[in-house]
Amino acid sequence: MNRVRLLILNAALGPLDYRVPDGMAVEPGSVVIAPLGPRQVTGIVWETDRLPGESVPDAKLRPLLGLLPVPPLSAALRRLVEWTADYYCASLAAVARMVLSSGGALKGGVTTTEYRLTGQPPSRMTPKREQAITRLEGEQATIRELAALAGVSDAVLRGLVTDGVLEAVVVDCDQPYPPAMPDHAAPDLSPAQHEAAARFCEAVDEGGFAPFLLDGVTGSGKTEVYFEAIATAIRNNRQVLVLMPEIALTQAFLRRFEDRFGAAPVIWHSALKSTERRRAWRAIAKGPQDGGAQVIVGARSALFLPYAALGLIVVDEAHEVSFKQDDGVRYNARDVAVMRARFEQIPVILASATPALESLQMAESGVYAKVDLPSRFGGATLPDITIVDLRAHEPERGHWIAPPLVEALEVRLERGEQSLLFLNRRGYAPLTLCRHCGYRFQCPNCSAWLVEHRLSQRLACHHCGHETAPPDACP
After folding, report:
1. Which residues, 6+ apart, have CB-to-CB distance to 352 below 8 Å?
2. Strand 31-36 vs strand 66-67: parallel, antiparallel, or unpaired?
3. Could you tell me the pTM of the whole model?
């Protein structure tokens, strides 16, 4: 194999042909360094065995410069890149850049230097040194991190290093994540939950593409059900991707996961530091049997990571509109998740209390298998909802709360309980106008109507945040 077609991570270019130098072994999906004009660029070997006849002989092609120390991208991932680019009218290179979104991960093994206390006293004690030694007991981190933790300057700690109070420790940046234990705290499931979990676990054991729509009311225990499918995948040494909206990636969910499996999942979202992204990317690119990541909880961009042994995809809150990427490559992560599961030949679970109409139609037509959890776990009931017709229960003159609501609030107050009222707008009125000539007050920045806030005696724009004092007269 002397010639390969390379996908350069430059949206302005299509695939380019290069020559493979003697002694270099590449395969489809290999990540390489190649010359492009005077520059060296990163590219992905896209084709090796189905190149069309070219008039340029192999000897005249520029050679590849190097092979990066990362596993080749799988055929399923390359198919996903091609499908996403075609379906959403994007360039191959733009989609491929999302796969290699952690540039630091391509550089191979990296170490960092951290510091810890040795127990040796300093030659000279100062208040700042004493403060640092007290606060850093049992800690190990970089100089900058330790300085922030101790509340002292870097210079204070470097002086302690010189005195032998702190010692340097070389740490591998790619330390493995603690393993998740599938049987750590297995829950007691209701009969409906047990039946649903059994279907998912069977699909994970059998493998093959199997899309499910998990439709359960709020509080029905959908999370506990798909946790059982995750446990099955872990037992099979397969990786799991749990896709969640950014707003749902909360500490509460992560604690819930850790309580169930005894270890936190690998996290992937846009706010991660570059070092955290690098560590996560390289762990994901290794299979669980090699000490790689087992369960990855991430936002929509986690779909394009190079999983080594993906065995299950879960899309939680699948109805959320935030799964739609609205800049760069525009795509719907819910649909891309289904396609990735199809290319990987694995099950995918779309979990929601209010499924999207498209998902319901897929279930009605038999494309998705629908699993229902119609009742809340533990026999809990939904709150009673009362709709008050303001035509029949008109508020008293000068008041804006209807009598039934006033009575309900009074009952809660008498019991010493709290009440929460949601208003359907901010401000006293949605716009401010002159009653004589009809002039409307507009925001000078964005032309939206200014809203009157009587409590603060201000006119505010709810689009850009501009505020001004109310005028004394119509302009």
Report:
1. 213, 214, 215, 317, 318, 319, 359
2. antiparallel
3. 0.75
- The superfamily CATH assigns to domain 191-379 is P-loop containing nucleotide triphosphate hydrolases (3.40.50.300)
Question: Cα-atom radius of gyration of the chain, to the nearest Å?
Answer: 30
Give the tokens for residue 402: 């209807």
Write down the pLDDT at residue 469: 87
Bridge partner list, 256: none
- Given the structure tokens 């002694």, which residue do they identify? 23
144 neighbors 153 (Cβ within 8 angstroms): no
Instruction: Give 362-396 pLDDT, tens digit per residue.
Output: 999 999 999 999 888 766 677 788 998 888 888 88
Long-range own/partner contacts, residues 322-331 (CB < 8 A, 24 or more apart): 322/245, 322/246, 322/247, 323/243, 323/245, 325/300, 328/94, 329/84, 329/88, 329/90, 329/94, 329/95, 329/98, 330/88, 330/90, 331/84, 331/87, 331/88, 331/90, 331/300
Look up residue 463 and give its two tokens.
Answer: 């689009």
Which of 22, 13, 46 has the alpha carbon at shortest distance from 32? 46
Q: How far apart are CA 86 and CA 322, in angstroms?
A: 22
The H or E element that residue 23 is part of is none
Spatial distance between the Cα atoms of 281 and 101, rounded to a whole number of angstroms:
9
* CATH tag for 3-99 (out of 1.20.1250.20, 2.40.30.90, 3.40.1440.10, 3.40.1440.60): 3.40.1440.60
Q: How confident is the model at residue 2 (pLDDT cuts 50, 70, 90)?
A: confident
For the chain, the first-to-last Cα distance in angstroms comes to: 79
